């Protein structure tokens, strides 16, 4: 076995990425304070060809040296949009017929692996602040909540790690 060289991986250019078919998913960041987490989310969204990232509230937006440090240019390939509040983002997504889920621990949440997707649906997931999670007003507007099962002593994951897990699950379930 030998490691592949970058040239052997046949990665898309930014223009090819923008023209390529996408995973029917928008990732919404609700008041994520760490620019490194924002950059990491962009990078995961690029890896799985997510449609867009919506940045809300105090979540920083590109261009930013700190976002770029972890995004490594994914902030240029993945479409993004800013909203003053995540409720506005959820309302816009609903107006476009998108099914929106908060990634949060709530009563009656759906375990991520149990989510059923429909090939004709578009989806969005809302991930929240590193300390407070998704705002309750945003949770109230969502169609449901997804929970990542955890089996250790901690009750949460880093937001960028959670985003990677959720995006991968949607990419697997909605591959067209």
Describe what this molecule looks like in 3D.
InterPro entries: Alpha/beta_knot_MTases (IPR029028), rRNA_MeTrfase_TrmH (IPR004441), SpoU_MeTrfase (IPR001537), tRNA_m1G_MTases_N (IPR029026). It comes from Hoylesella shahii DSM 15611 = JCM 12083. Pfam families: SpoU_methylase. Residues 25-167 form the tRNA/rRNA methyltransferase SpoU type domain. With 176 residues, this protein is an alpha/beta fold. It has one domain: SPOUT methyltransferase, trefoil knot domain (Alpha/beta knot, 3-Layer(aba) Sandwich), CATH 3.40.1280. The chain is built from 7 helices and 7 strands; from the N terminus they run αβαβααβαβββαβα. It has helices at residues 14-19, 35-47, 65-71, 74-77, 86-95, 136-141, 159-174, and strands at residues 23-30, 50-56, 79-83, 98-103, 110-111, 122-128, 144-147. The chain has a 7-stranded parallel sheet with strand order 3-2-1-6-4-7-5, sandwiched between helices. The longest helix has 16 residues, at 159-174. The two termini are 31 Å apart.
Q: Which features does this protein show?
A:
176 residues, alpha/beta, globular, single chain, 35% helix, Alpha/beta knot, seven-stranded parallel sheet
Report the strand count. 7
Helix content: 25-40%
Judging from the principal axes of the Cα atoms, what is the shape?
Answer: globular
CATH superfamily: SPOUT methyltransferase, trefoil knot domain
The CATH architecture is 3-Layer(aba) Sandwich
**How would you sum up the major sheet?**
7 strands, parallel
* Topology-level CATH name: Alpha/beta knot
Terminal Cα span: 31 Å
Radius of gyration: 16 Å
Q: Spans of 5+ residues with little confidence (pLDDT < 50)?
A: none
Written as H for each helix and E for each strand, in order along the chain, the element string is HEHEHHEHEEEHEH
Domains (count): 1
In DSSP terms (H or I, runs of 4 or more residues), the helix count works out at 7
Sheet with the most strands: spatial strand order? 3-2-1-6-4-7-5
User: Helix/strand/pairing class, anyone?
Assistant: alpha/beta
